[in-house]
Amino acid sequence: IQEMEAFFKECPHPDDKQRKQLSRELGLEPLQVKFWFQNKRTQMKNHHERHENSHLRAENEKLRGDNLRYREALANASCPNCGGPTAIGEMSFDEHQLRLENARLREEIDRISAIAAKYVGKPVSNYPLMSPPPLPPRPLELAMGNFGGDVYGNNPTDQFKCITAPTESDKPVIIDLAVAAMEELIRMVQVDEPLWNSLVFDEEEYARTFPRGIGPKPAGFRSEASRESVVVIMNHINIVEILMDVNQWSMVFAGMVSRAMTLAVLSTGVAGNYNGALQVMTAEFQVPTPLVPTRETYFARYCKQQADGSWAVVDISLDSLQPNPPVRCRRRASGCLIQEMPNGYSKVTWVEHVEVDDRGVHDLYKHMVSTGHAFGAKRWVAILDRQCERLASVMATNISSGEVGVITNQEGRRSMLKLAERMVISFCAGVSASTAHTWTTLSGTGAEDVRVMTRKSVDDPGRPPGIVLSAATSFGIPVPPKRVFDFLRDENSRNEWDILSNGGVVQEMAHIANGRETGNCVSLLRVN
């Protein structure tokens, strides 16, 4: 090794003849020598890039600090005679120099950012409305496809459209909140008693443990906190990518996320991954029924790799920076810790901690909401687990052809599962209480009201442009959910409730199993 190190200092790119001579002298294979020099060059290159990047970041931070001080000095400038604020026309020579220096610093920051981007491999975001940089299609995107449709709706009172990107002065506050939220999330994942007593959350202990944060709970709001763990069949890096890409995130959690949008990217991360990435987002969370109001939130999402190699993604509400419109839901530190497991699996521990005004929830759903089955950690990990199972089914290649009706063709399976996914998204959009659309009550009393809603269909695959009419009602029956599920999925009982198959014979032509449970499948039915 010492001889090769010495040779590398003299000649880091030996030719074939020199490599063969070295291999003879050292008793190594020529390929071993070749790969050693390749690895050495890569190590040196990475070392230089890290050193240069660290230097550039330090210089960048120094300039940003100077910039902030100059901005504060300008904002607090006062007239030396009367003590009042100075007008632009009364600007002193020193203040004028400060403005010129500020402009110079901005140019310097842009220059440093451009240089840093060359080494890191990702651009630095300087614009308030910016989506993450486009990435090549991932296996998940290929498996799930894209869903068009009327994302934002046509309701003129839609609060989702009122949210704006953060200002420059907001960004230091957002960074501080995100860092504190990350620390809080890790402790909430790792600590048991007295914070969690048999998965029951102790609010008083929380207030003592985390005095910082987003302030006291608003009057009339109720706290919801839950924690759940699951082992899923997906690589930990892929899960991080899903959570940090708003399109993938809203697609995977379509049953939970009715709409989502990235408003600003404060950091894209370093070294070609999402470590240190920070985004400002807005999202609307739903339960597939008009009787449970959606929850709109304006929050920062921060991703960080931990010292042990695990990854954490945390959300924290920014409602104090966006007082209008007033919020009905705010997220304290919520998110997940993702740990790598053998054979491509990952352990995900999810924490969901919100404060919400849930007075609009119908009595029929109050127990479901208060126990966390509607918006809690249990539902988030259940959806993730199912989607990971489904993706594994899409990518599977060892499908047995012995069973009748099983679709074994890879492209056929993928197309059918894409169609099923679009059906689920369309169904959720058609029955939720999203503020993008307005429900009108036609008839009935209480829970059994029949409600109708119209929405536009735009760029929706498989559906012509136009107006879609949805009707929904809710009712309770004294039967276990599993029995209802089995009844609805059984083709032999379908003509008892489906008017389109009434009087006919329903036959399953093909099916795709996409989960551990027997009922987790996609079926192709024919009515004779």
UniProtKB/TrEMBL annotation:
GO terms for cellular component: nucleus. It is found in: Nucleus. Signal peptide: none annotated. Residues 3-48 bind DNA. Residues 167-393 form the START domain. The keyword DNA repair does not apply. GO terms for molecular function: DNA binding; DNA-binding transcription factor activity, RNA polymerase II-specific; lipid binding. Residues 1-47 form the Homeobox domain. The keyword Electron transport does not apply. One of its GO terms (biological process) is cell differentiation. InterPro entries: HD (IPR001356), HD-Zip_IV (IPR042160), HD-Zip_IV_C (IPR057993), Homeobox_CS (IPR017970), Homeodomain-like_sf (IPR009057), START-like_dom_sf (IPR023393), START_lipid-bd_dom (IPR002913). Its main location: nucleus. CDD domains: homeodomain, START_ArGLABRA2_like. Keywords: Coiled coil, DNA-binding, Homeobox, Nucleus, Transcription, Transcription regulation. Belongs to the HD-ZIP homeobox family. Class IV subfamily. This is Homeobox-leucine zipper protein HDG2.
